[in-house]
Structure formats: C-alpha cells, structure tokens
Write a structure and sequence with these properties.
Layout lengths: L4 H6 L10 E3 L4 E4 L4 E6 L2 E2 L7 E2 L2 H10 L1
Antiparallel strand pairs: 1-2, 2-3, 3-4, 3-5
Length: 67
C-alpha cells in the first residue's frame, strides 16, 4: 500500500522540517538531512523519532545522487 501523493507533498521531517522522499520498496519516508527513515504502515506515515531508523552512509549517498 502506498502513501497518497497529496499527503506526501504536505509532509516534512518532524525534526528538522526538511523535505522527505518516499521509498516505495522499503515503505519508508526518508529525511536525508537528519539521516532518518520513518516507516509507513498500512499507508500511514509514522513520523515519530522513536519509530525511525538511522540510514547508513551508503543509503544517504545513494539518495543524494537520486536528487
């Protein structure tokens, strides 16, 4: 299940307020600035710091290259 595109356009990182990107395969919303990935469960973004995971340096570099 994916996140509604209109919802994605409204969401920002709850910590730094930077833009986030949706990673469909991983079902996560990623903030490159903070280096955190927030889970999406049943199409609902879980934008809580304690639910996020830190992304690896490799993941961060790949996301930066994508744009």
């Amino acid at each position: 299940m994916s996140v509604d595109r209109k919802t994605l356009n409204l969401l920002v990182c709850p910590l730094c307020k930077s833009g986030i990107s949706y990673q469909r395969k991983e079902e996560e919303l990623v903030c490159v600035a903070c280096g955190l990935a927030f889970p999406v469960r049943n199409g609902i973004p879980v934008m809580l710091e304690e639910e996020a995971r830190e992304i690896s340096l490799e993941e961060k570099e790949q996301l930066k290259k994508k744009g």
